Task: inverse folding
C-alpha cells in the first residue's frame, strides 16, 4: 500500500452543502462479520444550489449493496462510486435516497465507525467516522432528525441509540428489534449505537422545570459496583448546568456507556455518551484520587456538550474550539465549584487555586511546547490534512483559556449574559467561533462604551505563546509606580512559511497584577476608579503603561495573577523577591508561581552543573523557602502538595536553550533527594500528620492530605533512608485505597532496595490481573520507572497481558515510556528513538489516530542537544519514508521535519 498524497483542506474554502437532509432513517442488522445498514434519507436541494449540483456522499471501507431514488433501484451506471465517495447526479429537488451497504465491525481496529469491543458493538463518529457506517454528507453543518432501527441476536440484549426508545419487539427469527428516535436535528458525528450484554445503574431526577429524566450508566456485567461515582457525577453536572448557566437537560433520557477500547476520553453523542471505561469505573480499591477527579470532570465535559456542541454545533471542523474550548472552560469551572463546595471563603479560594494550578501545569506541559513546535496552530486552525490530528492541547486547553479571558473581561454576570445571547441567537444552528465572540461582544460593548473585541479576535487566528515583558519604575519623590507591559509573539510553525514579511498583530491581553511592599503586605491600588488588591490591566497594543499612586517604596510585583492570560511573563525578580512572594503573596496562584520559579531556577542551575561535570549542590535559600512552605500552618495540604511539587521536566525543557532531558532528570532527582535529606524531620512530620484513616473518600480535603503525605514519602524515599523504606512497605501492605497503594509502590520501585519492590510488583499483578484498568497502572508505573530501559520496555511488551490493539494498554506502556521516561527514551545511543519508530509503524497499521499521537513525541526534536537531535531526526525520516503510512502519521512526521524550529 502506498502512502496517499496528502490533501490540505483550508478554512477559507468553506462552501455550504448544496442539499438539506432533514430526515434520516437507519436500519442495522448487526453481526460482527457483516453488518448491513439501510440508510434512507430525505434530501432537498437548497434554495441557492444549482440544479446540476451533485449529491456527493462520503464513505470509507464500505461494501455497496444497492442505491435507490424514490423507491427505484439505480442501475450500476446510475451513480459514481469511488474509494471515498458515492455521487448522484440529476436528482429531483426533493427525493428519498436509499442506500444499502455492508461493513465489518469485527475487523475494525481503528475504533472509528462501528466496531466490536469485548464482544459488544460500539460506534465512534467524531470527527469523520460516520462515513465508515454508511455513505453520507459527513460534515457538521448537515443536520438531520434520526430514526434508528437496531436488529440483533439475543446475545446482544441491550440495544441503544440516540434519543427516546419508541418500540421494542421480538422478530420471528428470534432476534430482537428496537427503534429509537432523536427529536433534535444533529450532525452525523453525534450519531451513536451500542449493542451487547451490559448491566446498568440508573436514577430519575427532576429538572429545574419539573420534568422527570432517566439517567443511566451502562457497563460490563460485574462492574455495576463501580459506577456509583459516575452516576453521582452526572447528577451533579446536570444540577450545575442548571444553576450556573440556566441550561436544562432537553431529553427524557440520558445514557453513558463504558467501553474498554476507545481512542480518547469520551464522546458526547446526543443522549448516548460513550466513554473510555477509565472515565467511568471507580471504587476505592482500584481507582486513585486522580481517577475520581478525572471521572467527574469528563462526565461534566460530555454532559455540558449537550448545549455547547450539540444544541449549538460547529459549522465546519476549523471551528472545533467553538465547542471544545468552551466546554473545557465549563468543565474546569464545574470541577472548581465542586472542589470549593461547602467550604468557608478562605478554604474555597485555596481549593479553586489548586484546580487552577493543576490546569495551568497541564497547559504548560502540553500546550506551550505544542505552540512552540512544528504543529503550532491557532485555536481555530487555517488548514489541516487530517482533522483527527487537531484534537490538540491548543484547540482544547488554550481554547479554554481564550474563553476564560472573555469571562475575565466581561465578569461572571457579563459572561452569563453573553452565553444567554449566544443561545438566543444560535440554538439549533451550526456556527463559527466568530459567532460566539460576537455574542460576547454584544455585552462587552455595553459594558465598555467605545471598546470592542476586534483585537481580542486575534487569539483565534494567530498561533504561538505571546511573551509579555514587564518593567517597573518607582519614583520615590512622587510616590508613584509605573508599570510597562510590552508584548511579542514571533511567527511559529506554519506561520513561518508565510515568509519574512508576515507580521503578527498584538493581542488583547487581560493582565492581572498586584503590588506587595517589602514586608509582603498587599498595597492598595487605585485603578479605574476603585481601590483594589488586584488590578486588571488590558494590554491591547504592543506596549502600554499604567501608573499607581501613593506607593511609598519600590514594590514587589505579583504578575499574571490566576494566570489571567496564556502568556509567558518576563520579569527579572531577584531570588529574594521570589521568596517573599512565595511566602506572602495574597493571591494563592501567584504565590505558587513564585515558588515554582525559584525551583525552576534551581533545577536549571543543577542541570547546567551536571552538563559541565561539576558537583551538584542545592542552594540554601531555596531549601529554606521549601521549608517555609512545608511548615506553614495556614496552608492546607492540597495547596502545599502543589506548592512543593517540583516543576515537570516538560515545563523545564521549555526553559532550556538546548533540551537535555537526561540532565534535567538527574538534576530533578538530585533536588528531590536533597530536599528529603535536609527537610527529613519536616517531611516525616507531614507524613504522620496527613494520614487519612477510616473509610475512603475522594473529597478534596482527604485527597489533598494524601497528596502531601505521598509527596513527603517520595522525598524521604529518594533520600534513601532505611526508615523511609519501612514506611513505604508498611503503607503498601496496609493501604485502604489505590492512591496510597500506587504511591507506595511507585516510591518502592523507583527508590527502594532489596527484594520487596519486585515482589510487590509481582503480587500486585497477581491480585489485579482481571481488572484491565489496574493492569494499565501496573504497566504505566514500570514504563516510567527510573531504571526502565528500552530493553525493559521491550520485555514488558512480551507480557501476555500486553496488546497494541487496546489504546489504554498502548498508552500505559508505549506512551509512558516515550513521553515520561527521560532516561530510557533519550538514551544517547538512539535506541529509544528506534523503538519509537517501530511502535509508530506498528500502531499505524492498526489505529492511525493513536499512532499519530505517539508520532508527536518527537515534535520538538530540533531543539534538543545535538547528540539527541541527530538520531531523533533519523528516526523521523525513517517513519516518513515508510510506504503505506496513514494520512494521520504522514501529516505529523512531515510537519515535524519541515517546520522544525
Ligand atoms: N468530542 C470528544 C470530546 O471532546 C472527543 C473526541 C473527538 C473523540 N474525536 C474523538 C473521542 C474520537 C473518541 C474518538 O469530548
Ligand atoms: Zn469535548
Result:
Amino acid at each position: 500500500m502506498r502512502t496517499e498524497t496528502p490533501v490540505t483542506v483550508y478554512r477559507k474554502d468553506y462552501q455550504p452543502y448544496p442539499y438539506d437532509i432533514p430526515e434520516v432513517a437507519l436500519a442495522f442488522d448487526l453481526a460482527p462479520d457483516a453488518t448491513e445498514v439501510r440508510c434512507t434519507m430525505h434530501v432537498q436541494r437548497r434554495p441557492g444550489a444549482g440544479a446540476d449540483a451533485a449529491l456527493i456522499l462520503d464513505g470509507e471501507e464500505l461494501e455497496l449493496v444497492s442505491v435507490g431514488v424514490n423507491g427505484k433501484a439505480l442501475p450500476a451506471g446510475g451513480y459514481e462510486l469511488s474509494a471515498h465517495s458515492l455521487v448522484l447526479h440529476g436528482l429531483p429537488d426533493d427525493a428519498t435516497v436509499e442506500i444499502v451497504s455492508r461493513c465489518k465491525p469485527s475487523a475494525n481496529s481503528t475504533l472509528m465507525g462501528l466496531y466490536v469491543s469485548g464482544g459488544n458493538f460500539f460506534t465512534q463518529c467524531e470527527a469523520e467516522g460516520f462515513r465508515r457506517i454508511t455513505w453520507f454528507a459527513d460534515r457538521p453543518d448537515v443536520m438531520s432528525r434520526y430514526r434508528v432501527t437496531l436488529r440483533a441476536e439475543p446475545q446482544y440484549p441491550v440495544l441503544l441509540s440516540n434519543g427516546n426508545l419508541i418500540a421494542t419487539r421480538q422478530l420471528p427469527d428470534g432476534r430482537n428489534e428496537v427503534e429509537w428516535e432523536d427529536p433534535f436535528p444533529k450532525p452525523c458525528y453525534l450519531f451513536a449505537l451500542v449493542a451487547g450484554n451490559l448491566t446498568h445503574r440508573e436514577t430519575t431526577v427532576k429538572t429545574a422545570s419539573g420534568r422527570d429524566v432517566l439517567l443511566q450508566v451502562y457497563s460490563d456485567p460485574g462492574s455495576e459496583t463501580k459506577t456509583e461515582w459516575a452516576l453521582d457525577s452526572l447528577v451533579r453536572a446536570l444540577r450545575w448546568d442548571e444553576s450556573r448557566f440556566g441550561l436544562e437537560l432537553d431529553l427524557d433520557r440520558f445514557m453513558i456507556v463504558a467501553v474498554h477500547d476507545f481512542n480518547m476520553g469520551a464522546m458526547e453523542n446526543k443522549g448516548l455518551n460513550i466513554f473510555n471505561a477509565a472515565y467511568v469505573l471507580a471504587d476505592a480499591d482500584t481507582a486513585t484520587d486522580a481517577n475520581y477527579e478525572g471521572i467527574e470532570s469528563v462526565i461534566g465535559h460530555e454532559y455540558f456538550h449537550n448545549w455547547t456542541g450539540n444544541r449549538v454545533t460547529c459549522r465546519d471542523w476549523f471551528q472545533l474550539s467553538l465547542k471544545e474550548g468552551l466546554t473545557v472552560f465549563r468543565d474546569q469551572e464545574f470541577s472548581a465549584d465542586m472542589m470549593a463546595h461547602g467550604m468557608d471563603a478562605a478554604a474555597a479560594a485555596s481549593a479553586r487555586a489548586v484546580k487552577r494550578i493543576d490546569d495551568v501545569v497541564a497547559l504548560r506541559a502540553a500546550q506551550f511546547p505544542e505552540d512552540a513546535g512544528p504543529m503550532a496552530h491557532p485555536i481555530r486552525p487555517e488548514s489541516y490534512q487530517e482533522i483527527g490530528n487537531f484534537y490538540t492541547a491548543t484547540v482544547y486547553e488554550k481554547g479554554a483559556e481564550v474563553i476564560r479571558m472573555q469571562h475575565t473581561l466581561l465578569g461572571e454576570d457579563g459572561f452569563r449574559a453573553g452565553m444567554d445571547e449566544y443561545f438566543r441567537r444560535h440554538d439549533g444552528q451550526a456556527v463559527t467561533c466568530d459567532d460566539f465572540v460576537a455574542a460576547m461582544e454584544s455585552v462587552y460593548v455595553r459594558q465598555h462604551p467605545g471598546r470592542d473585541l476586534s483585537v481580542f479576535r486575534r487569539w483565534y487566528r494567530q498561533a504561538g505563546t505571546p511573551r509579555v515583558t514587564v518593567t517597573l519604575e518607582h519614583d520615590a519623590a512622587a510616590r508613584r509606580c509605573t508599570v510597562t507591559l510590552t508584548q511579542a509573539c514571533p511567527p511559529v510553525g506554519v506561520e513561518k512559511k508565510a515568509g519574512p514579511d508576515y507580521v503578527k498583530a498584538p493581542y488583547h491581553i487581560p493582565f492581572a497584577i498586584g503590588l506587595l511592599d517589602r514586608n509582603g503586605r498587599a498595597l492598595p491600588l487605585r485603578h479605574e476608579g476603585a481601590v483594589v488588591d488586584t488590578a486588571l490591566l488590558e494590554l491591547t497594543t504592543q506596549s502600554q503603561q499604567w501608573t499607581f499612586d501613593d506607593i511609598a517604596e519600590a514594590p514587589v510585583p505579583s504578575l499574571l495573577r490566576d494566570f489571567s492570560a496564556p502568556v509567558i511573563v518576563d520579569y527579572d525578580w531577584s531570588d529574594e523577591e521570589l521568596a517573599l512572594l512565595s511566602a506572602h503573596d495574597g493571591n494563592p496562584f501567584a504565590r505558587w508561581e513564585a515558588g515554582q520559579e525559584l525551583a525552576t531556577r534551581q533545577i536549571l542551575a543543577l542541570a547546567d552543573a551536571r552538563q559541565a561535570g561539576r558537583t551538584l549542590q542545592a542552594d540554601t535559600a531555596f531549601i529554606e523557602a521549601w521549608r517555609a512552605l512545608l511548615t506553614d500552618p495556614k496552608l492546607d495540604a492540597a495547596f502545599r502538595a502543589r506548592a512543593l511539587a517540583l516543576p515537570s521536566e516538560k515545563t523545564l525543557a521549555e526553559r532550556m536553550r538546548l533540551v537535555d532531558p537526561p540532565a534535567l532528570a538527574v538534576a530533578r532527582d538530585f533536588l528531590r533527594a536533597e530536599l528529603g535529606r535536609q527537610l527529613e524531620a519536616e517531611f516525616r512530620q507531614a507524613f504522620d500528620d496527613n494520614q487519612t484513616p477510616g473509610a475512603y473518600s475522594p473529597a478534596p480535603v482527604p485527597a489533598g492530605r494524601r497528596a502531601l503525605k505521598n509527596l513527603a514519602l517520595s522525598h524521604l524515599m529518594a533520600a534513601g533512608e532505611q526508615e523511609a523504606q519501612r514506611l513505604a512497605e508498611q503503607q503498601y501492605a496496609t493501604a485502604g485505597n489505590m492512591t496510597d497503594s500506587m504511591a507506595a509502590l511507585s516510591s518502592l520501585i523507583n527508590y527502594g532496595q532489596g527484594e520487596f519492590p519486585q515482589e510487590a510488583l509481582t503480587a500486585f499483578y497477581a491480585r489485579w490481573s482481571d481488572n484491565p484498568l489496574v493492569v494499565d497502572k501496573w504497566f504505566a508505573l514500570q514504563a516510567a520507572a527510573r531504571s526502565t530501559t528500552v530493553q525493559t520496555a521491550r520485555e514488558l511488551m512480551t507480557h501476555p497481558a500486553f496488546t497494541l490493539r487496546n489504546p489504554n494498554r498502548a498508552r500505559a506502556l508505549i506512551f509512558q515510556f516515550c513521553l515520561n521516561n527521560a532516561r530510557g527514551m533519550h538514551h544517547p545511543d538512539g535506541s529509544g528513538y528506534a523503538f519509537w519508530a517501530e511502535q509508530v509503524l506498528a500502531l499505524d497499521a492498526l489505529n492511525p489516530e493513536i499512532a499519530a499521537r505517539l508520532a508527536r513525541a518527537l515534535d520538538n526534536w530540533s531543539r534538543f542537544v545535538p547528540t539527541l537531535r541527530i538520531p531523533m531526526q533519523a528516526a523521523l525520516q525513517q517513519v516518513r519514508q515508510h510506504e503505506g503510512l496513514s494520512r494521520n502519521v504522514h501529516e505529523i512526521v512531515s510537519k515535524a521535519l519541515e517546520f522544525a524550529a
